[in-house]
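Q: Give me the 3D complex with iron/sulfur cluster.
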Amino acid sequence: MHSELNLLKSWGWSDQSSSPPIAAYIHIPFCRHRCGYCNFSLLANRDDLFERFLDGLAIELCELQKPRPVETLFLGGGTPSILPTSLMRKLLELLRHWLPLSQDGEWSIEANPLDIHQDSLRLWKDFGINRISIGGQSFHPAKLKRLERDHSPDELKHAIDVARSLMDSVSLDLIFAAPDETPELWRNDLRQAIQSGANHLSTYGLTYEKGARFWGERERQIIKPVDEDSELEMYLDAIDTLTSNGFTHYEISNFARPDHACRHNQAYWNGDSWWAFGPSAARYIGGVRSVNHRGTLEYLRRLESDCSPVVEREELTLDQQWRERFVFGMRQLRGVAWKTWQTHVPEFVRASIDAKIAEHIEHGWLQEIEDHVRLTRKGLVVSDSLWPEYLD
Ligand code: SF4
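A: Here is the predicted complex, encoded as structure tokens.
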């Protein structure tokens, strides 16, 4: 074991921890190019680093000391599917050893439509991957071009067809409120997504993150964002169209056909502990949140020289843990079993959350149904502005 690394300790985890993580996220920081709206931790067009990255990841995984069984695994990025077959096999072997998946576990991979074909799917499936999350974003050529995606609508449809023939669960990411997009164009995307046969859809309004190229272009008025009313109309259209076509709206941005909700993400929203590996990976274990360096080269340099890749570590107080658990739980449309929780929540936290709930029910943003408190439709559209009030 590496003397300086000692990651288990800096992650706040020991064999004695009462709730071992049951989920693990692995960040693969590579893409063919960087889309203008993206500020994730990744390197574009750096295939020369693939092998070195896997060696670094192997060092980080070694810190687990022994295999740690999990119920869900999520290979995200970046674009994990970018790895060529031999390196993908090496990665999957590593993960199968260190993070063995339970018998009925869920193993997801994020994939670019161009990487989805019979051979890649067979390899993924042989190792136990049973859920694929496709970065499709749209079925419109002009919108795909505007978002700087490298696939065509036909390539996306073909990828979904092939994925459905071999995977239990196929999820599709869609972006709305792209520059120049109209509600009618978005409704067309929704219709095509429903017809595509994907059994899980994630819909996100385009955001202009500081550090992403689109942010600068919006500042310089090269890009004109869609107005707020149209964006709201598109979000509500997604809810109405998808729920009337057999999807359950189970989280603010996520919709699933029966039995296809993403179990991995539900672990985050339920406040469970999870492992995380790779540059920028953030984990939460036993009330301790820690985050790896977001630069891939620095992440590698640290691991190669026996240093911890962790650059942030926060030990949450009991108060903070309950507040966060409440907020993450409320992202789910079923809400939080607040009346049941109350017996476990310390009195001083309970009183302040109770007061906020009452205020937000008064505004029509929350409702109480039996022992649950949850968002109303009116609350859904303002939810981002509500959460900070529960965290203070
Ligand atoms: S493919 Fe995804 S992760 Fe890669 S740059 Fe584009 S948006 Fe970011």
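A quick observation: The radius of gyration is 21 Å.
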